Structures are given as structure tokens and as C-alpha cells.
Amino acid sequence: MSCNLYKGRSTHQTEDMEKKREEEEEEEEEEEEEEEEEEEEEEEEEEEEEEEEEEEEEEEEEEEEEEEEEEEEEKNHSKKKAILPFILPPYRSFTCS
């Protein structure tokens, strides 16, 4: 005869209760595994979002730098245009009359 853990109950009832407990434990383990998988997926999604945000920020910074460089080039070019007439005399001064 097997050891009866539950006093006053038959071996059959005890076995049924043990099976139920085992099934409940298995279900709990499965639920925990599912929760862990969901948490991992959420973490991965958050990491991907962070990476995308970082990439967007980098792109914005690059665009701003390019715009600043273009503005500086335009300023330098306009300065050259303003200085150029003073450096080179008009064409007609080179002609002989």
C-alpha cells in the first residue's frame, strides 16, 4: 500500500489530488515561461525603438551639420563676391585706349 498523504482519503483520491497539483504546477510553469518570453520580446522592442531613436537623432545631427556647412559656404562665397571687385579691377581698365 502506498503512503496516504491525506488522512481519511482513499489512495485513489490522493492520486487524483496529486495529479491535479502536478497539472497546476505545470500550468504555472508554462505561464511563467510565457511571461518571461513576453518580457524578453518587450525588452527587444524597447531596444529596437531606442536604436531607431538614436539613428534618427544622428541623422538629424548630420543634417544640421550639413546645413551649417552650406550656410558657411554661402557666407564665404558672398564675402568673396563682395571682396572680388576690390581685388580685380574692372575688365575695361585692362584695355588700352
From TrEMBL:
Superkingdom assignment: Eukaryota
Chain positions covered by the region annotation Disordered: 1-97
Chain intervals with Basic and acidic residues compositional bias: 12-22
Extent of Acidic residues compositional bias: 23-73
Protein name: Uncharacterized protein
Species annotation: Pyrus ussuriensis x Pyrus communis
